[in-house]
What we know:
The structure holds 2 protein chains of 2 kinds.
Chain A: H1 14-37, E1 40-51, E2 57-58, H2 66-69, E3 80-92, E4 97-99, E5 105-114, E6 118-126, E7 132-140, E8 144-151, E9 155-163
Parallel strand pairs in A: 2-3
Antiparallel strand pairs in A: 1-3, 1-9, 4-5, 5-6, 6-7, 8-9
Chain B: H1 10-17, H2 24-32, H3 34-77, H4 84-94, H5 96-116, E1 144-149, E2 153-162, E3 165-174, H6 177-181
Antiparallel strand pairs in B: 2-3
Helix pairs in contact in B: 1-3, 2-3
Amino acid sequence: MTERSSPRPNRSAARPAIAGLVVACAAVLASARAARADVTATCDFFEILAKQGDKPALDGDLKVLEKKLKKPPFASSWNQFHLLSRSQKTLAKKKAEPIALKNGSATATLVEIVDTSKVRLTVTMADDKGKQVNNTTTIEAADYVIYVQPLAGNEGHLLSVSCR
Amino acid sequence: MTPPMNRPSDLEIMELADGESDDPDLVSQIEGDPESRAKARLIQQMGELVRGHLELSADAVHDAKFAAMWRRIDGQLVSPVSGLWSRISAWFDRYRSHIITGAVSAGAVAALALVLRPGVADPGQPGSTSTIMVRPVALRANPEIDALDTPGASSTVINLDDDDGHAAVIWVTPDDSNAEEL
């Protein structure tokens, strides 16, 4: 019987492994890219009307802010806090997001995430008369920025922002 | 000259030479008769010649058939692949199982990377897609006001601290607030 050598060319056994590795690296890079493109922060916005009344009052939805609202400078000006509106927004990086308010208007922009635990946030807020607040603050996740605009009749218009 | 009575016939000698008979009486008769012995030896030699010829013929036939078979296999395995795309698809066909294994591994690695990337969802917010890590209150830094602009108003920044964390209070007072109240 005549002996035959294999007709298949003698290919390197490492080629398939290299191909698999390349595919794996591409997938990891793609996922990392997707993760980078997916920089977002979820922020809660509480619009609050503050008043001075006979008895202290705090809406149930504002319990998360109770400790802060019972301290000066709030406690020295008002003792009643009512929720006007509440919204939660997922902010994409460098994209201004309008925040619906009962009184005036506001936008919020996620500038960047700092050290994986802080957000740099730009908030613009205008009351009914067009008075504006333009602010950029860096806060830790779950901490608060509270904007206060006094209203006529010894009332106050508050906007609380917290991101995580 | 007449053959002796115990001399085996030619047929019996052929049967013995071909291994078709092993009768001991027949063997002893052939061994005892020089003529029969010579016939048996000649018949054996003739048989070997015929078998050798047939085996050589069989070998020649097998080689021809196998050569044709290998030519067909060669044609299928190294089919003419002229274009680059044909070569690439042939390569993928050849290593399909390796590529599938690599793709499955890559998927597993990508899934791990997505799950283990920094900024996992806050356990306090089911379904949250947050990319920010919430640190314990004791480790949190005070809020930093990077920019504050209040046209037509003055502002005061007050930091509040409690068990729930920090709060930066930005108190905006319109410049004309006294005039409005009047």
